[in-house]
Write a structure and sequence with these properties.
Layout: E1 25-28, E2 31-34, E3 58-62, H1 70-73, H2 75-85, E4 87-91, H3 97-126, H4 130-150, E5 155-159, E6 164-167, H5 171-175
Antiparallel strand pairs: 1-2, 2-6, 3-4, 5-6
């Protein structure tokens, strides 16, 4: 097959096989736990229905919570150390078509609210109207927080050489995983 250098970029999709055995993913309490090269089963992490294919791979990051103490010294020092010390893992959390559509609406809504907040902030500053500027700042901050809470799929609570611990999966999805311990 011929490589086209002018083709648009393609999303990185999971190239791992969807076949799963008990050693790849399991449940421990409210955590989904993966082996380092393990993969989540191809089910929706919100309702455990069959996930819409293809499932996009995502990178999750984790660093020890002790690093948050560096914020007391300097947020810039924390940011630099956290970027250096963080660990990452590639996971493929699936969504059914209904939950994929819901997440799309959250992402678009938060983007539009952020743009509106920036617009209000700029117009409030340019018109020397602190009320409009504050409304814009509040709208922007609310959109960012809402996206961080409702827009993310899963997040890592620990990553080490032997396991990847994930939160954010529903009870129905977790019930489909084998238990360990």
């Amino acid at each position: 097959m011929h490589h086209n250098p002018y083709a648009p970029p393609r999303a990185r999709l999971s190239t791992r096989t969807p076949a799963m055995n008990e050693s790849q993913a399991w449940r421990e309490g409210d955590l989904a736990v993966l082996a380092p090269l393990g993969q989540l089963p191809p089910h929706c992490i919100r309702c455990a229905a069959d996930a819409e294919q293809p499932i996009k791979e995502r990178t999750v990051y984790w660093h020890t919570p002790w690093l948050y103490l560096l914020i007391l010294i300097s947020p810039l020092i924390y940011l630099i150390v956290a970027l250096i010390a963080r660990k990452r893992a590639r996971v493929s959390p699936g969504l059914c078509s209904e939950h994929r559509t819901q997440r799309h609406h959250v992402v678009v809504g938060c983007l539009l609210a952020s743009l509106a907040g920036i617009g209000l902030l700029v117009s409030g500053i340019s018109a020397s109207n602190s009320g409009i500027g504050l409304l814009g700042g509040f709208t922007l901050l609310a959109a960012i927080i809402f996206f961080l809470v409702k827009g993310r799929l899963v997040y890592a609570t620990r990553i080490d050489a032997n396991r990847i611990e994930l939160k954010g999966c529903s009870e129905a999805f977790l019930a489909s995983l084998p238990r360990r311990r």
